[in-house]
Specification:
This protein is an alpha+beta fold. The chain has two domains: 244 residues, Aminohydrolase, N-terminal nucleophile (Ntn) domain (Glutamine Phosphoribosylpyrophosphate, subunit 1, domain 1, 4-Layer Sandwich), CATH 3.60.20; 171 residues, 3-Layer(aba) Sandwich (Rossmann fold). It has 17 helices and 27 strands. The chain has a seven-stranded antiparallel beta sheet with strand order 5-4-6-3-12-11-13. The longest helix is centred in the middle third of the chain and has 15 residues. The chain is globular.
Length: 464
C-alpha cells in the first residue's frame, strides 16, 4: 500500500489527454511522449499510448509515470500517422492496470481507441443497460461505457455516432478518439474539462492544456469550444458545433490548482490568474509581516502577488524535496507526519523570529496545513498567518476531480475560526469567491460547485 507524501491533502485531477495526426509516422509516438510528459501533473497513476500503425491500432499502457511506462523501447516500437495518449490519477479502489487508458475497443466494423478526461454522472445507469444487453466490461471506468456506446451506435459515420452518444451521456468530458482514419476531439457542452487544438508543419495536435501543445513542438491554435467535435484527417480539420447551448462552466480549480502555470485555458493565463488572486487576497486580508512565502509549488504565483501588493519581502520559507513522491509503507498517522517532513523542510534561517505569511492555493482536509504550520513555528517563527487563494472547499465534485467525502472536507464542517484553531495559525483567511472569479479577468462562466454547491447539472444524491 502507498500514499502520497503531500498530495493526500489536495484535490486531484484525474486525467490528461493528447492526440497527434502527423504526416511523419516516425515521430508520432515521440510527440505523444512529450505531450504526456508535459501533462504529468494531471495524473501520476498510469500512462499509455495507442497508435494507428496503418494496419491496426497498437497500444501500450501500465501503472506508473510517463517516463517509466513509455520507455525508449516502447516509444521506438510504434510508428503511424495517428496516435493518442493518456495520463491518469485514479480514485480510491480503482488504481489498477486494467483501468489504464487509452481504451481500445474492437467491434464488427472496425476499431476505435479512446482517452478520456472527466467523469460521467450517469455512467452506472448506462453500464447497467449495456450489461442487460450482454455487453461484458473489462474495466470499472466510465470511459469504457462511452467506447462501447460509440461502437454500438456506429453505422458508417463515426462523427454521427459520437454526437449521438454525447446527447445521452451526462457529466464532464474531454474525449480524444482515434479511428482507422481520424483523430477526433470532443468537449462537453459546459466545457467543464479543457481541451485545445494545435498545429505543426507535419500535422495537428490535441491536448488537455496548451503546455502540451508547446511540448509537442506545436503552435496553439485555439481551445475546442464547449460541445464541439473536431475531426482531423487527411483532408485537414473540420468541426461540428453543438446545437444545445448552455452557459460555459470551466472548472475553476483548473486555475486554482490543476493546470500548469504556463497554460492558457479558454484564453485565460493560469499564472496571471493565480498572481491576481494573491493580490486580491492581500487586499482582503493584509498582514504587517516580515516575510511572505508559499507552500510549493502551486501556491507560488499567489504568494508573489500577495507580497507585491503589500510590498513585503518574498522568500523561500519552505524548501521542497522534488524527488520525494511516494512511499510504499502503511499510512499510519505518525508516518504521514514524517512523510510531510520528508518532502518539505523549513528554512529556519529565513523564518526564525519573524512574523510570516504562508500562502497556499487551497485547504481540503487541513491535516497537511496543520503540520506545516507546526513545522514553521518549530523553526522559530514569531507568528504564522495563513492565507488561502481560494474559498473553502465545501462540496464534492462529480465531474472528474477526486474529492474526499464531504465528512472529510474541513471547509464543509467547520467555521473559519474553527479551521484556524485546528491548524494552529495566528490568523487565517480564504479568498472570497467573488475575487477568485475576478482574478481571471474573464467574463467566462466557471463551475464553482466544490465551493458553493451550485452544480451545473443534476448529480447523485443532490451532492450530499
Amino acid at each position: 500500500m502507498y500514499f502520497e507524501l503531500l498530495g493526500n491533502d489536495k484535490l486531484h485531477e484525474e486525467c490528461g489527454v493528447v492526440g497527434v495526426y502527423s504526416e511523419n509516422p516516425q515521430i508520432t509516438s515521440q510527440l505523444i511522449y512529450y505531450g504526456l510528459f508535459a501533462l504529468q501533473h494531471r495524473g501520476q497513476e498510469s500512462a499509455g499510448i495507442a497508435i494507428n500503425t496503418g494496419s491496426k491500432i497498437e497500444y501500450h499502457k501500465d501503472m506508473g509515470l510517463v517516463a517509466d511506462v513509455l520507455s525508449k523501447d516502447v516509444v521506438n516500437k510504434y510508428s503511424g500517422k495517428i496516435a493518442i495518449g493518456h495520463v491518469r490519477y485514479s480514485t480510491s479502489g480503482e488504481s489498477e492496470k486494467q483501468n489504464a487508458q487509452p481504451l481500445v475497443v474492437r467491434y464488427k466494423l472496425g476499431t476505435i481507441a479512446l482517452a478520456h478526461n472527466g467523469n460521467l454522472v450517469n455512467a452506472d445507469s448506462l453500464r447497467s443497460i449495456l450489461e442487460d444487453d450482454g455487453v461484458i466490461f473489462q474495466t470499472t471506468t466510465d470511459s469504457e461505457v462511452v467506447a462501447n456506446m460509440v461502437a454500438r451506435h456506429y453505422r458508417g459515420d463515426i462523427v454521427r455516432s459520437i454526437k449521438n452518444v454525447t446527447e445521452i451521456v451526462k457529466g464532464a468530458y474531454a474525449f480524444v478518439f482515434m479511428t482507422d482514419k481520424e483523430l477526433i476531439g470532443v468537449r462537453d457542452n459546459y466545457g467543464l474539462r479543457p481541451l485545445c487544438l494545435g498545429k505543426r508543419e507535419d500535422g495537428y495536435l490535441l491536448a488537455s492544456e496548451s503546455c502540451g501543445i508547446t511540448a509537442m513542438g506545436g503552435e496553439f491554435i485555439r481551445d475546442i469550444e464547449p460541445g464541439e467535435i473536431v475531426v482531423i484527417n487527411e483532408e485537414g480539420v473540420s468541426s461540428v458545433k453543438t446545437t444545445k447551448y448552455v452557459q460555459q462552466r470551466l472548472c475553476i480549480f483548473e486555475h486554482v490548482y490543476f493546470a500548469r502555470p504556463d497554460s492558457n485555458l479558454d484564453g485565460v493565463n493560469v499564472y496571471m490568474t493565480r498572481y491576481n488572486s494573491g493580490r486580491l487576497l492581500a487586499q482582503e486580508a493584509p498582514v504587517k509581516a516580515d516575510l511572505v512565502f508559499c507552500v510549493p509549488d502551486s501556491g507560488t504565483p499567489a504568494a508573489l502577488g500577495y507580497a507585491a501588493e503589500l510590498n513585503i519581502p518574498y522568500g523561500l520559507g519552505i524548501i521542497k524535496n522534488r524527488y520525494a513522491k511516494r512511499t510504499f509503507i502503511e499510512p499510519t498517522q505518525d508516518l504521514r507526519e514524517q512523510g510531510v517532513k520528508t518532502k518539505l523542510s523549513i528554512l529556519k534561517e529565513l523564518v526564525e523570529g519573524k512574523v510570516v505569511v504562508m500562502v497556499d492555493d487551497s485547504i481540503v482536509r487541513g491535516t497537511t496545513t496543520k503540520q506545516i504550520v507546526n513545522m514553521v513555528k518549530e523553526a522559530g517563527a514569531k507568528e504564522v498567518h495563513v492565507r488561502i487563494a481560494s474559498p473553502p472547499v465545501t462540496h464534492s465534485c462529480f465531474f472528474g476531480i477526486n474529492t474526499p467525502d464531504r465528512s472529510k472536507l474541513i471547509g464543509a464542517n467547520n467555521s473559519i475560526e474553527e479551521i484556524r484553531d485546528f491548524i494552529k495559525a495566528d490568523s487565517l483567511h480564504f479568498l472570497s469567491l467573488e475575487n477568485l472569479i475576478k482574478s481571471t479577468n474573464s467574463t467566462l462562466g466557471y463551475c464553482k460547485a466544490c465551493l458553493n454547491g451550485d452544480y451545473p447539472m443534476e448529480v447523485p444524491n443532490n451532492g450530499i
